[in-house]
Amino acid sequence: MALQKHVLSLFLMLFIIVIPYVPCYVTSQEDPLKIHGGGDSPFNNIDDGGTPKKLIQQSTQVLSLNRFVKLGVTSSSASKLNVNDFGAKGDGKTDDTEAFNKAWQAACSSGRDVILVVPSNYDYLLKPVRFSGPCNSRITFQISGTIEASENSSDYTEDPQHWLMFESVQNVTVQGGGTINGNGDTWWRKSCKKNPSLPCKSAPTAVTFYRCENLIVENLVIKNAQQIHVNIQESSKVKVSGVTVSAPEDSPNTDGIHITNTKIIQISNSVIATGDDCLSIESGTQNLLASDIACGPGHGISIGSLGETGTEELVSGITVNGAHLSGTTNGVRIKTWPGGSGSASNIKFQNIVMENVTNPIIIDQNYCDQKTPCKQQKSTVKIRNVLYENIKGTSASDVAVSLNCSQSFPCQGIVLHNIDLRQEQEAQIPKALCQSALLSYVGSVSPRCP
């Protein structure tokens, strides 16, 4: 027994001595292969005051998402409710809003598992509607038909920001292979981005999930949103899969999936082609995993913008693993306004193919989307621990890698690992421009910063 205690004590001493030794990233002049120890994952070596442990925890939370969302799956013994039984006509002309309201209230108050059916071969016209909770039942909203938005702007006077809204519900699944059509053309024509002579006004978001938990959204077509297609806000334990989002390339502000203040979210096997960001990841988003995403046309996959009007904003634990971007105006982008505070940290962009993409890799810590130049500020949203790994393809711009970081607060822990980007024309090697970025290269990286 004494010998065992002695061996255990030696082991603990070695553990304490060895574990804290985590090499830091350095500038690109040094050999990153030595720093990272060859075959080790480069991101695991980033030293940020205990960050590796946090990264492991975040990955575990995202990967264990299935354990949570199973709670929202309705059992095979669930009762079925059909919106037609509550007076819906589904002829594409009659206002079916009240029928949908009644059907939802019946499902929400049933006290047992419910499948709320929107049957195929029907076309339902809806004004703005809220499907509110909390409910005392688990609900599967089975959309097999088509739901279309009213094009009459006067129908949106009470709530000009939302069309379909799921609010404060738990254990809900929205699925079915049907179509949600925002009929956005009416709104696009009135946009100042289409007609600069018009005043700039916001338009409704097509589908909003607000303060939802254990949410599944799968196998749906969502198209032609008035503005944002899907907004997931202040929610947790969310799974989105098999979703097709589409709008014309010139449709203004039609983000595909917009996420803000949401924790533990998985987005997979989805096709997004719109006039704005395919994925827009905003402040308060933590532990997000996006995989098997087809994006384009559109503005790419964006984190931010963050820090507008000097606000403090935080984003962390974001992984995009497996994406194909085609013809987008940006690739994978992080954008922050000068003057803000907070951080965007522990971010991975992995296994991504770029096809004729402008600005494939871009960090802009001096983002300024306004008519007058932004003033120089003493603070900014800090960017740290960002991995770009196994990214290849073609750039439509001369600059394929742009790291425009703050001189006061440089980007830290930026890693480029196995990058192969060439210009679309004549397979030439594009440029990389880097300012105030503390970065490392691992493996074969092209282009590199001068």
UniProtKB/TrEMBL annotation:
Localization, UniProt: Secreted, Cell wall
BP-aspect Gene Ontology terms: anther dehiscence; carbohydrate metabolic process; cell wall modification involved in abscission; fruit dehiscence
Stretch forming the signal peptide: 1-28
Enzyme class: hydrolase
Keywords attached to this entry: Cell wall, Cell wall biogenesis/degradation, Glycosidase, Hydrolase, Secreted, Signal
Active site: 299
EC number: 3.2.1.15
A family per Pfam: Glyco_hydro_28
One Gene Ontology term of the molecular function aspect: polygalacturonase activity
Reaction catalysis annotation: (1,4-alpha-D-galacturonosyl)n+m + H2O = (1,4-alpha-D-galacturonosyl)n + (1,4-alpha-D-galacturonosyl)m
Family as reported in the entry's similarity comment: Belongs to the glycosyl hydrolase 28 family.
Name assigned to this protein: endo-polygalacturonase
